[in-house]
Amino acid sequence: MKNMRKKKDVGIYGLTAKWYDKNSRKSRMKQMQEYANEISTLVENGASILEVAPGPGYLSIELAKKGFNVTGVELSQDFVVIEKNNAKEANVSVDFKEGNASNLPCEDNSFDFIVCSAAFKNFKDPVKALSEMYRVLKPDGKALVIDMNYNSTSEDIENEVRNSGMKGFDKYFVKFAFKTFLKQGAYTKENFEMFLQEMHFRNYNIKQEGISLYVYLYK
Predict the structure, then answer these.
(1) Quick check: 87 and 60 in contact, CB under 8 A?
(2) pTM for the structure as a whole
(3) Residue 25 sits in a domain of what CATH number?
């Protein structure tokens, strides 16, 4: 992951994108609903929300079901197609569009809330991505970055995979991915604190839970 993102942001395409969609549908829907519930406690009803790198789009879809005005910016053209199909199937409206986290195709001060889940470690320039989030947030807006913690233990990973309910190939592949290239590309709490030294966010809070870091940002 580290080597892949040296030259450009890492995207997921083709058959891998289709597998990721299928696996997410089977094993991550409860997690997406939990994330959506958490976000709904942090914003007003009908708020405008941006998801950066939504993948197959299930978190954006869960947020749209709650009545939020949701936009998703995704690097992978293949995922944009999948996202739109999934939103159509769920009978919700989400403005999914192609774009890069370091150059978001959004106006300044556009969103009440921004979320980025399981994708931040894919970005070539994490500081620029955070800067773009700050730019498109409204004054007093909030953001939440959720991603793997480099310091997560083997026990944390075992618990995460067990709780997901994955079986067979999916279970063993995801466990292997967590323990190898995903962990190698992940950041620590201290890494995020270093990135944020260059930002203008007035406050932040970083929570460690299981294999994940939850980085709450306040403009």
Answers:
(1) yes
(2) 0.92
(3) 3.40.50.150
